Input
Amino acid sequence: MSSTINPNNINGAYPVAGQDNDSQGFRDNFTNTKTNFQAAATEITDLQNKVVLKAALTGTTLNNDMGGSILSNAQLQDMSETVVSIGSVSGSQTVNYAVGSYQTLTMTGSVSFSITNWPPAGQLGRIRLQVTCNNLAHTLTFPASVTIGVSNIQGLVTSTNTLTFNKTGTYEFELENYQGQSSTAVTIIDQNRNLDPIYLPSSEDLANAGAASLAVTASYFTTAAAETATLAAGADGQIKIFMMFADSGDMVITVTNAGWKTSGTGTITFDTIGDGCTLQYINSKWFCIGNNGVTFA
Output
């Protein structure tokens, strides 16, 4: 903008020394000086309210909120981002986009989260969430709006957006949204996890009445009497192996989305030491791709 301060409307040669000077000249200079002071005050106040500062002005608190205005043709150097620690949490959690683009949490139980204060529709919002899992029984459920990129995440059941981890540790997920708070098409990018759902070199001792872990490849069991267990829906392409390590009674595993049934659950019965089978989750069903002595029903 152009300044409205006009230094040329003040007569610097008035009054003239050594002679009687018309009082109107004094009044003109005083009026124009006051007008310029008023203009200067208005312009300085406007600048104080709008400019970006590297430090707070005296008597004020620094606030460089750009209010959504465009910053263009800038070269960035030595920049940092705000890190927000949500803390050790479980249950339903809210991730507030407005307070920081990098946020962390440690799971003390299963966690489901939502994201609030995305930028307006038409502007890309991007946030990274660092998650620490110290217990494989704890699951992480993403918002229902996360619908893009979900098929590439190991251990994620897309029907519920619930993720089961295969190892304890710290993980990062990036979420992107350009449709605002009402979006149903948020993209998720898995930053540092093994995306191969087939090779998980781990196993568990499956207890009576237990739920077979989807975070390990193999489950084995030693029965003390007739026992039961369950297997939930898996991730597309996932492989699950069962074997009877020792036999003092049949083991019957109830399988969700059994591929040998028209619909619903099916059962697998192990009745002899050494019995085993290999299942693979294909098109939302568990199919048997290898069998040694077990019975399907």
